[in-house]
Amino acid sequence: MTKSPNNKPVYDLEERTFQFAKTVRLFVKTLPKTIANIEDGKQVVKASGSVGANYREANESLSKKDFLMRMKISRKEAKESAYWLRLIYETNNLKNDSYAQNLIQEANELKKIFSSILEKSK
Fold first, then answer.
1. Domain count of the chain?
2. Is 117 domain-assigned?
3. Cα torsion angle, 102, 43, 18, 50, sign
4. What is the distance between the alpha carbons of residues 59 and 71, in angstroms, rounded to a whole number?
């Protein structure tokens, strides 16, 4: 779970998804500059940003169908973020491996939250 600067849990999902995307970007900046890391980094930056962007779009949806589609995209992008983060984690000898593990966990938690929202919205 994402924590606020005063170490309290963030329950605002818009803020939580923003913090996730921000933290992913900060993490990517720490990676060794290899061809694989540059390409994987681009992918995870795009996917992590899309999680929150689509969640915000869902909150402003014009119909239930639009809401469900945007939530499914957010869930898909969270799952994709976890994939790229795991790939980076498993193909590098990271000094900050707990940083990567926490991001993978956060991506998986977001995916579960979106799945729960989708289940309750049917």
1. 1
2. yes
3. negative
4. 9
* Predicted pLDDT at 122: 79
- Work out the burial of residue 99: count CB atoms within 10 Å of its CB; fewer than 13 is exposed, 13-18 middle, 19 or more buried: middle
- Asked whether residue 5 is assigned to any structural domain, the reply reads no
- Euclidean distance between CA atoms 22 and 60, whole angstroms: 22
How does pLDDT run across 25-83, given as a tens digit for each residue?
999 999 999 999 999 999 999 999 999 999 999 999 999 999 999 999 999 999 999 99
DSSP string, 100-114: HHHHHHHHHHHHHHH
Q: What is the span of the domain harbouring residue 73?
A: 17-121
- Give pTM, 2 decimals: 0.89
**What CATH number does the domain containing 76 carry?**
1.20.1440.60
According to DSSP, residue 95 is labeled: T
As a whole number, mean pLDDT of residues 10-37 equals 94
